[in-house]
UniProtKB/TrEMBL annotation:
Main localisation: cytoplasm
Name used for this protein in its record: 3-isopropylmalate dehydrogenase
Similarity comment: Belongs to the isocitrate and isopropylmalate dehydrogenases family. LeuB type 1 subfamily.
EC number(s) from the headed UniProt entry: 1.1.1.85
Residues marked Important for catalysis (site): 142, 191
Subcellular location: Cytoplasm
Keywords (A to Z) from UniProt: Amino-acid biosynthesis, Branched-chain amino acid biosynthesis, Cytoplasm, Leucine biosynthesis, Magnesium, Manganese, Metal-binding, NAD, Oxidoreductase
PROSITE patterns: IDH_IMDH
Length: 357
């Protein structure tokens, strides 16, 4: 069984963490006697350097021909002054759109070994954390019209947040289906007291909620949700929300788990092909220093095996291997706790790969 995996290491810590991901896939390939055919592709700042564009057509084509796509992260100070459509981040938004991956699943799960690595009081984390944030990924304000014009006394700029009924319906159904397989509670997060797009979201979600009577539906404004995530994260099971709110809330939720370096993600469309990436960015402040936590990327590979490659047992192997390595006391700097063994990116990747057995 050969599976084609497109790799986009990207920039900053991206290549370092994707390298650890490949170690994990190689360990899975050895155990299950399957072949992963890797194809490394340019996207982000590295693509700008080599081709003048953040998302070459060849990258889009090769991703579409693969079974799954693994992405590191993109961006960096070097490209911060380029026009928006030529920045590394435009490549990232472009590949998500080109693959049609509208549903971005971002599970925030606390490994019990990391309770004291979290910044929250232990009491809040008593019975663990398991929140699934489902973020709409290819619509909303990141994709709406952007413009800047000269006006008297300065300039004016805008970014439009727009959603169609169809865009909301498909992510809502995905969220309900996910909630049905979990604790059957869906919280829709919006700003419907102010935004017209949020009011449309609410109407659509309310309409669809009747098809899922077994799932309890709640509605919450995003400012309150940001607060509730810290005050009482246990109240959440599945959160569904638009693109930018989901982006922000998932970085916040990562702190419940100890670090931004712990949160994986899977982005899915209508088909099986998925895009898998840690939720964090290129972390230029620690790039090239063997400091990045590769667990978010490695857990994203578990999601890839589960959702795109039909390898549930291998996905569980990876999750168990991460847990075993944490049990043995190994920590990268971002999740370091007293009395534990500090390891770098490479060593953490090696340890997890060795524990896949
Ligand atoms: N998916 C992507 O490719 C994303 C790209 N970006 C881009 O990344 C660049 C840096 O953005 P920032 O706002 O600094 O966000 P960031 O997520 O790269 O870093 C935020 C902070 O978290 C730390 N951090 C991130 N990942 C870590 C890991 N695996 N292990 C340990 N520490 C980790 C960083 O060192 C930094 O202090 C920007 O160019 C931004 O546009 C940001 C978010 C997502
Ligand atoms: C370019 C940004 C939208 C990337 C990001 O922050 C994310 O997807 O989490
Ligand atoms: Mg983000």
């Amino acid at each position: 069984m050969n599976k084609k995996i497109a790799l986009m290491p990207g920039d900053g810590v991206g290549p370092e963490i994707v390298k650890q991901g490949i170690k994990i896939l190689d360990a899975v390939s050895a155990k299950y006697n399957c072949v992963f055919e890797y194809k490394e592709l340019l996207m982000g700042g590295i693509a700008i350097e080599k081709t003048g564009h953040p998302l070459p057509q060849e990258t889009i084509n090769a991703c579409k021909e693969s079974d799954a796509v693994l992405l590191g992260a993109v961006g960096g100070w070097k490209w911060d002054n380029l026009p928006g459509h030529l920045r590394p981040e435009a490549g990232l938004l472009g590949i998500r759109k080109a693959l049609g991956v509208f549903a971005n699943l971002r599970p925030a799960i606390l490994f019990p070994q990391l309770k004291s690595a979290s910044f929250l009081r232990e009491g809040v984390l008593e019975d663990g954390i398991d929140v699934m944030i489902i973020r709409e990924l290819i619509g909303g304000i990141y994709f709406g019209e952007k413009k800047r014009v000269d006006i008297e006394g300065g300039q004016k700029a805008w970014d439009v947040m727009a959603y169609s009924t169809h865009e909301i319906e498909r992510i809502t159904r995905r969220a309900y289906e996910t909630a049905r397989k979990r604790s059957k509670k869906l919280t829709m997060v919006d700003k419907a007291n102010v935004l017209e797009s949020s009011r449309l979201w609410r109407e659509v979600v309310m309409g669809i909620s009747g098809e899922y009577p077994d799932v309890e539906t709640n509605y919450m404004y995003v400012d309150n949700a940001a607060m509730q995530l810290i005050r009482n994260p246990k109240q959440f099971d599945v959160i569904v929300t638009e693109n930018m709110f989901g982006d922000i809330l998932s970085d916040e939720a990562s702190m419940l788990t100890g670090s931004l370096g712990m949160l994986p993600s899977a982005s899915m469309g209508e088909g099986k092909i998925g895009l898998y990436e840690p939720i964090h960015g290129s972390a230029p402040d620690i790039a090239g220093q063997d400091k990045a936590n590769p667990i978010a990327t490695i857990m994203s590979i578990a999601m890839m095996l589960r959702y795109s490659l039909d390898m549930e047992a291998a996905a569980s192997d990876i999750e168990r291997a991460v847990s075993k390595v944490l049990d043995k006391g190994y920590r990268t700097a971002d999740i370091m706790q007293e009395g534990m063994d500090l390891v770098g990116t490479e060593r953490m990747g090696d340890l997890i790969a060795e524990n896949i057995c």
